[in-house]
Amino acid sequence: MNDPQWTTGPVLSGRGLVKRYGGQYALAGVDLDVRAGDAIAIVGPSGSGKTSLLHVLAGILRADSGEIHLAGRRIDQLGEKKRSELRRTEFGFVFQSGMLVAELTAEENVALPSLLAGRGRRESVRAGREWLARLGLGGKEGRRPGELSGGEAQRVAIARALTHRPKVIFADEPTGALDSRTGQETMNALLGAARESGAAVLVVTHDRELAESMPQTVAIRDGLIAARPAHGGLAA
Ligand SMILES: Nc1ncnc2c1ncn2[C@@H]1O[C@H](COP(=O)(O)OP(=O)(O)OP(=O)(O)O)[C@@H](O)[C@H]1O
Ligand SMILES: [Mg+2]
């Protein structure tokens, strides 16, 4: 955490990222720098490469070429086991519709990544309860996903993405299944929680208004960055 090599540089950096499916380029050479505290909206038409970019940066997909550094350390050449460990410890994920475990309570869902990251049960549950309370879900810790509204379930998913204190949160259409007002509230909850925890956040969204409410926007078209954010966030 205090390695001087990266404390002033980006927390996550992608260089020349290329991802091909057959002859088609999902990513055609993307450079992106994410600094601590950044909140970046990723926008672009369907099929432009947004999910591919998140998955390549998070090490879910392997790029065909390019480099990824996390906190100054190259991570794209790591083996599957190490990358899976990074995903459990350094990254948090919020998906379009929760992907909560239906059989587990809100509190158990939220504690899960922290337990998987190797923290103790007591600490994981305590941290999970704190995040649930901060996200306005105090009193609903014992509910199962089926007993929550869509917006509440997404806030549980946000708490779950934060409890193990990740450096970067990846959110792919986290408000895609919500009405626009609940979507804006959920996005505000995500951004506020990320800010409090110090995590950077990358959010894919189709919602233009939501994207415009974010501090930075990166537009993708045909696997390439088409527009630079208003300030910071991208490599020179
Ligand atoms: N597993 C796959 N096999 C083959 N082609 C794929 C695969 N995943 C994605 N693609 C292709 O790569 C391109 C980028 O896809 P990607 O999922 O990154 O787009 P997206 O911007 O997230 O789109 P959407 O907004 O619809 O989610 C598309 O042309 C898609 O068809
Ligand atoms: Mg997508």
Task: Write a concise keyword list for the protein shown above.
four-stranded antiparallel β-sheet, six-stranded mixed β-sheet, 8 helices, binds adenosine-5'-triphosphate, binds magnesium ion, 236 residues
Q: Going across the major beta sheet, what is the strand order?
A: 6-7-8-3-9-10
**% residues in beta strands:** 15-25%
Rounded to the nearest angstrom, the distance between the terminal CA atoms is: 25 Å
Structural class, by secondary structure, is alpha/beta
Weakly predicted, low-confidence segments: 231-236
Number-wise, the strands total 10
Radius of gyration: 17 Å
Write down the secondary-structure element order.
HEEEHEEHEHHHEHEHEE
The distinct bound ligands, ions and cofactors come out as: adenosine-5'-triphosphate, magnesium ion
Categorize the overall geometry: globular
Q: Output mean pLDDT.
A: 90
**Count of runs of 4 or more consecutive helical residues:** 8
Give helix % range.
25-40%
Major sheet: size, sense and barrel closure?
A: 6 strands, mixed
Structural summary, described in words:
The longest helix is centred in the last third of the chain and has 18 residues, at 180-197. The protein is α/β, with parallel strands linked by helices. It is built from 8 helices and 10 strands. The strands form 2 sheets. A 6-stranded mixed beta sheet has the order 6-7-8-3-9-10, with helices on both faces. It has a 4-stranded antiparallel beta sheet with strand order 2-1-4-5, covered by helices on one side.
Helix and strand arrangement:
Layout: H1 4-7, E1 12-21, E2 24-34, E3 39-43, H2 50-57, E4 65-70, E5 73-74, H3 80-89, E6 91-94, H4 106-116, H5 121-134, H6 150-162, E7 168-172, H7 180-197, E8 200-204, H8 208-212, E9 216-221, E10 224-227
Parallel strand pairs: 3-8, 3-9, 6-7, 7-8
Antiparallel strand pairs: 1-2, 1-4, 4-5, 9-10
This protein binds adenosine-5'-triphosphate and magnesium ion.
Magnesium ion is lined by residues 50-51, 172.
